[in-house]
Design goal:
single chain, 425 residues, Carbamate kinase, eight-stranded mixed beta sheet, 12 helices, 33% helix, kinase
Length: 425
C-alpha cells in the first residue's frame, strides 16, 4: 500500500459541488489501495474576503489575530470535505495545521516550517481513515500561537507532510492541467510540460510562475519528493516535477532547451540616486533593507560618473514592501549619504528559463531580438546559468511574454490551454 499526499487549491473546492467532486477523486485514490492524506486550501476567494474584512475593521491588525482569522478559511474547507467523504461511505478525519504537527517559527503571516511531527496523522491512517489537513497554517514552536505560511502556503504544507510521512508522491491539484510554458491566461497557445526538473521549476516559481510556490519546490528538492501538478477538473496527466525525468510509454521524457517564460507584475523598483562610489556604501544600503526583513530580487549598479564620483543603485522588491523599504532608507540617509530615492511600481519582469541555455549559443540574442522587434524597452537585466530576466514597463509585459514564447518555438499546435476555474485574484 502506497501513501499519497494530495493538495487541493481554493478553486477546486470553491463551492459545495466542487467539494463533492474532490471527495469522489480522493475516495477513488483510497479505493486504488493507497493511504491518502489531503491538504486543502480555503474555498475560492475566502482568504481574500477575510483580508478585506480585517482591513475594514482595523487598518493594522496584530499579526497574531490576523493569523487566527485567516486560518478559519482552511478549517471550513477541511470539515466540509471530511463530511463529503463520509457521505460516500469512507471514514475521514480533519486536522488543523497544529493538530497535524506542523511546527513553525514565530513570524506571523509568513512563518517557515521548522519541523513536522505527524503522529496523529499516522494514527488516523493506521486506523483506515483518510486524513484531511488544513493547509497554509501551523503552530509556533515557542509560543504555541497559530501561524500562517504566507501566500501559497498550502503547497508547502503538502510537500512537508509528504516528506515527513515518506509519501510516494505529492499531487498538487489546481485549476490548470499542469505546468505550462507560460501562463495560459496570457499565452493561449502555451504548451503543457510533461516533466520538468526541480532546478528549472525553482527558477520559474521564483520568476513569477504561480502554479507552484518557490518554497514548496525547494522543500520537495531537499527531500526528493516527486510532485505531480494536475487539474482537479479533468482526469488528464499533469506535469511531473522531480530530480529525474519520467518514462512515458517506451520513451524517456527529456528536458527541453527552454522550459518556459514566466512573468511577474507584483514587484516595484527603487533607485538610490547619488551614492558615493566607495567601499561599504552598497553594503550599508542592503544591510538597511535586510534589517527591515525585506527580500530583494534584481540588483543593478550603474557606472560611476567620473566628474562626481557618484553612482546609482537600483533594485526590485515586492510592491507590498515598497513603503517599508523607502522609510528604512530615509531613516538611514545621513549614514549612507545618498542624494535621493526614486520609486516605481509600474514595472514587470519577464524571465526565460531553461537548463539548455547554458550549452546552446544564441539564446540570449534570440531573447533580446524578440523584445526589440516588439518595441519593448528594457530597464534592468539579470541572469543566471539557466535564466535571463528583464524588467520592462508593466503595460508591455503581456506582449513581451507572447513574442518571446513564440520566438523560442514554445507555442502549442493543439487546442488552447484550458483554465478551469479561479478568479486569478
Amino acid at each position: 500500500m502506497g501513501l499519497v499526499v494530495q493538495k487541493y487549491g481554493g478553486s477546486s473546492v470553491a463551492d459545495a459541488e466542487g467539494i463533492k467532486r474532490v471527495a469522489k477523486r480522493i475516495v477513488e485514490a483510497k479505493k486504488n489501495g493507497n493511504q491518502v492524506v489531503v491538504v486543502v486550501s480555503a474555498m475560492g476567494d475566502t482568504t481574500d474576503e477575510l483580508i478585506d474584512l480585517a482591513e475594514q475593521v482595523s487598518p493594522m491588525p496584530s499579526g497574531r489575530e490576523f493569523d487566527m482569522l485567516l486560518t478559519a478559511g482552511e478549517r471550513i474547507s477541511m470539515a466540509l470535505l471530511a463530511m463529503a467523504i463520509k457521505n460516500l461511505g469512507h471514514s475521514a478525519q480533519s486536522f488543523t495545521g497544529s493538530q497535524a504537527g506542523v511546527i513553525t517559527d514565530s513570524v506571523h503571516n509568513k512563518a517557515r516550517i521548522i519541523d513536522v511531527t505527524p503522529g496523529r496523522i499516522r494514527t488516523a491512517l493506521d486506523e483506515g481513515n483518510i486524513a484531511i489537513v488544513a493547509g497554509f497554517q501551523g503552530v509556533s514552536q515557542d509560543k504555541k500561537d497559530i501561524t500562517t505560511l504566507g501566500r501559497g502556503g498550502s503547497d508547502t504544507t503538502a510537500v512537508a507532510l509528504a516528506a515527513a510521512l515518506d509519501a510516494e508522491v505529492c499531487e498538487i491539484y489546481t485549476d490548470v492541467d499542469g505546468v505550462f510554458t507560460a501562463d495560459p491566461r496570457v499565452v493561449k497557445k502555451a504548451r503543457k510540460i510533461d516533466w520538468i526538473s526541480f532546478e528549472d521549476m525553482l527558477e520559474l516559481a521564483s520568476s513569477g510562475s504561480k502554479v507552484l510556490l518557490h518554497r514548496c519546490v525547494e522543500y520537495a528538492r531537499r527531500y526528493n519528493i516527486p510532485i505531480h501538478v494536475r487539474s482537479s477538473f479533468s482526469g488528464l496527466q499533469g506535469t511531473w516535477v522531480s530530480s529525474e525525468s519520467i518514462e512515458q510509454g517506451d520513451q524517456k521524457v527529456e528536458q527541453a532547451i527552454i522550459s518556459g517564460v514566466a512573468h511577474d507584475t507584483s514587484e516595484a523598483k527603487i533607485t538610490v540616486v547619488g551614492v558615493p562610489d566607495k567601499p561599504g556604501e552598497a553594503a550599508a544600503i542592503f544591510r538597511t533593507i535586510a534589517n527591515a526583513e525585506i527580500n530583494l530580487d534584481m540588483v543593478v549598479q550603474n557606472v560611476s560618473a567620473a566628474s562626481t564620483g557618484l553612482t546609482d543603485i537600483s533594485f526590485t522588491l515586492p510592491k507590498t514592501e515598497g513603503r517599508k523599504a523607502i522609510d528604512a532608507l530615509e531613516r538611514n540617509r545621513p549614514g549612507i549619504g545618498f542624494d535621493s530615492l526614486r520609486y516605481d511600481d509600474q514595472i514587470g519582469k519577464i524571465s526565460l528559463v531553461g537548463a539548455g541555455m547554458k550549452t546552446n549559443p544564441g539564446v540570449t540574442a534570440t531573447f533580446f531580438e524578440a523584445l526589440s522587434d516588439a518595441g519593448v524597452n528594457i530597464e534592468l537585466i539579470s541572469t543566471s546559468e539557466i535564466r535571463i530576466s528583464v524588467v520592462t514597463r508593466a503595460d508591455d509585459v503581456p506582449e513581451a511574454v507572447r513574442v518571446v514564447h513564440t520566438a523560442f518555438g514554445l507555442d502549442s499546435d493543439s487546442a488552447e490551454a484550458v483554465v478551469y476555474g479561479g478568479t486569478g485574484r
